[in-house]
Amino acid sequence: MARKSRSDRRVDLIDAARRAIIRHGTDGVGLNHVAEEAGLTSGAVLYHYPNLGELLVDAHHAGMERFYELRLKRISGMRDPAEKLVVTIRSGLPHGPDDPDVRLLNELGGAASRNRMYALLLTTLYDRQVAMYQSILETGSALGTFTLAGDSLVIARNLVALEDAYGYRITARHPVIGPEEAAELILAYARTATGNDLKTSH
Questions:
Q1: What angle in degrees, to the nearest 10, is found between the helix axes of 6-24 and 52-64?
Q2: What would the pLDDT profile of 8-55 be if each residue is shown by its tens digit?
Q3: Which ranges in 116-151 belong to alpha helices (H)?
Q4: Residue 165 three-state SS
Q5: Residue 201 has pLDDT above 60, yes or no
Q6: How far apart are CA 70 and CA 93, in angstroms?
Q7: Range list of H helices, 29-151
Q8: Contact 190, 167 (CB under 8 A)
Q9: What mean pLDDT, rounded, does the chain reach?
Q10: CA angle, 27 then 32 then 35, to 5°
Q11: Which SS3 state, helix, strand or coil, does residue 137 take?
Q12: What are phi and psi of 29, to 5 degrees?
């Protein structure tokens, strides 16, 4: 069996740290928890990541990729702004109450008031998501696909806020709000905000 490279080991440790954070919480996770998840000794973890705080930040950052980098990649080949908007809305919600990436974000949000780096990560993600939505809205407006009911920045910020709010309801196991219901609620606002019925296949 081929020996793993140092970079591969670090990727494995990031995944292990994400699992440990979900299990023990951002404030409660320790080096021993990460080592246990990775199947390594604490010394082996420190060999690849001498600073546990750096590993935890990298773990949180990796969990965020899905909500910005991967969404951008998913819509990059689409030309229809309406399709882009629908796909972006749907891909920003949890798959279900146990969605690990969203649970990780919830942990990060809880610790952000006590950790400036975590707060910066969340702020950066929020700003990028707003910019992503704003770009779609303004492109749609320029093409005549959308007739915006207000400022594109305001609409974009509201879309991200709705994502966050309904995402939380899903992970909190609200009895009547699952991923599909949440998507339709956000799309209802988006239809009003864009003047488009957003009837695209998905």
A1: 80
A2: 889 999 999 999 999 998 889 999 999 999 999 999 999 999 999 999
A3: 116-143
A4: helix
A5: no
A6: 13
A7: 31-38, 42-48, 52-64, 69-75, 81-91, 100-111, 116-143
A8: no
A9: 92
A10: 115
A11: helix
A12: -70, 140
What tokens were used for 79?
């030309």
Q: Which residue has the tokens 């992970």?
A: 171
Predicted TM-score of the model (pTM): 0.87
What is the DSSP code (8-state) at residue 107? H
- Residue 70 token pair: 């991967």
Sequence length of the chain is 202
How far is C-alpha 56 from the chain's CA centre? 16
149, 156, 103: which is closest to 127 by C-alpha?
156
CA–CA dist 57, 121 (Å, integer)? 8
Structure tokens at 63: 């969990």
96 vs 90, 163, 182, CA distance in Å? 12, 14, 11
| Predicted confidence (pLDDT) per residue in 106-126, tens digit | 888 888 889 899 899 999 999
